[in-house]
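Appendix B. Worked example

We walk through a single record from start to finish. Start with the input: the chain for Helix-turn-helix domain-containing protein, Arthrobacter bussei, length 275.
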Amino acid sequence: MVSPDPDERTRDRVLSAVLERGPVSAAELGDSLGFTPAAMRRHLDALSQDGLIEVKRVRSSATGAGRPARRYVLSRRGQTEMGDDYLDIATAALAQLGAAAGPEAIEEFARARFSGMEERYRPVVEAAGPDLEARAQALAGALTADGFVGSTKTVGLPQLRGSRAVASSGRPVMLSVQLCQGHCPIQGLASAFPAFCEQETGVFSRLLGVDVRRLSTLAAGGHVCTTHIPLGRTTAAPAAPASPDAPGTAESTAAAEAAPPSNPATPSIHQQGRP
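Next comes the structure step. The output line below is what the pipeline stores for this chain.
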């Protein structure tokens, strides 16, 4: 019986690591697998020549400046070659863990997995300064570098920000940022075990320093993962009072006071949680 080629076994390990962690750099792969830089390059070159992996150029998540870094992801052919066996195995393993040690063991596993994310992302988010929108954008950039395709969008009534801005109701409006993730590398696991989404949400809350809320997730059937980040209440400047002699002033004032509170800004598709 012919023994498997040691290089083939090693490249299977590399391919599995790229699948799990991509987009990932050669240095990160070498550190996690215990390979020298030269050995790591040799295996990556071989997998690239076989069409199983490809290079993705990623700019710095902190500034977006500088030369894009080389990171590796599975190609379409590589995805086909790997199949979904890893998901079946991981799901079965976690189900067995839960049966043997209870749901708390799965929560602890998910917590341990995301603790590394929190540690790596914290310097990136802290570098953005105290502004919450800037911190959310930095977090989105870090997520994109890890393959989550992060983006942010401010929702509410941005025109109320300036001291000279006026709303028809003159009432305070809550502004927020939506942090969206267009891809989830562990979507299948998160669908079976919601603890993964819950732990990730907790990481976002601690990194940003505010309570956040999940509006939709890919794991639950949404078209993106969307996290609501409150920015605080902004009050519109009052409209200049009309002259007491102006016709219709009393009637207009009475009507305004009797009017019911205006509805908040219409939620976006993400806020509505549409799949």
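Two observations about the output. The chain has two domains: 9-82, 85-239+267-272. Residues 168 and 258 are 14 Å apart (CA to CA).
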